[in-house]
Amino acid sequence: MTNENNIKTIETLYAAFAVGDIPTVLAALDEKVVWNEAEGNKYADGNPYIGPQAVLNGVFARIGADYEYFNLVNIELHEMSNNKVLATLRYQAKLKKNGATYDAQVAHLWTLKDTKAIAFQQYLDTKNVADAEAK
Asked: Which of 126, 125, 120 is nearest to 13 (CA)?
């Protein structure tokens, strides 16, 4: 698979997430995807999540329950060797429990095989998120 195909796969995944099309996001994940949230992120309690259903239940459903909105913005995709794509972006989000908002710096490292994501590693400004949670 060329890097161009890898980039296209991840672009499609982020576009689907932006409009709430979670089935399309999950379809981009390999059935045995290994998904890791950033250390210090409360959703890291299930690391590693194995498979799309685990990601849905352990990450996406919890985000939906915890946030009034959760937007991925300023997404830039960077081609890397070994079928990897690095996404640099920001999370702009508002918590339901206290109305706190944050704008956090994030990076996602994706590993792909045959147009499917086989691994995901999140890097996140967890202090920014924790500060909003504590308000």
From this structure: 120
DSSP H/E element including 112: strand 101-113
Q: Across the strands, what pairs with 69?
A: 94
SS3 49: strand
φ/ψ bin of 59: left (φ > 0), alpha (ψ from -120 to 50), beta (otherwise): alpha
Structural domains of the chain sorted by starting position, each given as residue range(s) with its CATH number in brackets: 3-134 (3.10.450.50)
- Spatial CB neighbours of 64, under 8 Å, sequence gap ≥ 6: none
123, 37 Cβ separation under 8 angstroms: no
Helix (H) or strand (E) holding 127: helix 126-134
For 66-115, what is each residue's pLDDT tens digit?
999 999 999 999 999 999 999 999 999 999 999 999 999 999 999 999 99
Confidence (pTM): 0.95
